[in-house]
Amino acid sequence: MKAIIFDVDGTLADTEDAHRKAFNDAFVKAGLGWRWDRPLYKKLLSVTGGKQRIRFYLETHLPAFLAHDDIDARIADLHRSKTAFFVERLNNGQVPLRPGIEDLILEARAKKMTLAIATTTTPVNVTALLEANLGADSIQWFACIGDGGKVPVLKPQPDVYHWVLAELGLAAGDTLALEDSRNGLVACQRAGVPCLIVSNDYTEGQDFTGALAVWQSYQGVTVDKLKTLHAKAALTVL
Ligand code: XBP
Ligand code: MG
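Above: the input record for the complex with xylulose-1,5-bisphosphate. Below: its predicted structure, written as tokens.
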């Protein structure tokens, strides 16, 4: 195991409720009567990417709205507004890292492991989350940051993992990805990247067949535990 690749949403932090509230803030600001509650948002999470998620909502709940000539621009405007509300929450310190994540990152850094990020979210969301929780320098701790701005096609397609592996110059099997969702797991599988799932309230109960393991928390997770898991997976493949 030469590198650990971190997903962001649901892995570094339980961000999805903050995303959900930011979408709702944007809908209110735009004078729309839409409101995404938790059960609805859980369903909408089947589609990654905020713009794609808004479109999916319209397709499934308000198909007539899609007939607007300027629908793409409307969705883009709504998403820009949502991102501003989300970043405001991050900057206000309202989105902490998942318990155990900071210790794991600091230990991995001390052990000179290569760290990377593979996410489908908007780039500014990643930098704001890292800066708010780990300090301004922390962006430099990651050898590369693959995000929704680097690749056009999001998870569950493997593009962001291919991009990260190419940047790192490593084979998929030499890395370990930390993910929280089925879409993340499938992206890993399609790229051949071994994947540990640490689930959360939004992703618990999804189909995680093929994950190296499914855990519920990062508390007590050490680099050695990850290496043991990774080594066992390599043996199984042989
Ligand atoms: C996370 C996502 C993201 C966020 C929204 O998926 O699907 O789209 O919910 O972010 P993953 P944006 O953890 O698998 O990367 O609104 O910035 O797209
Ligand atoms: Mg995730």
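Notes for the reader.
The two ends are 16 Å apart (CA to CA).
The chain has two domains: 3-15+97-237, 16-91.
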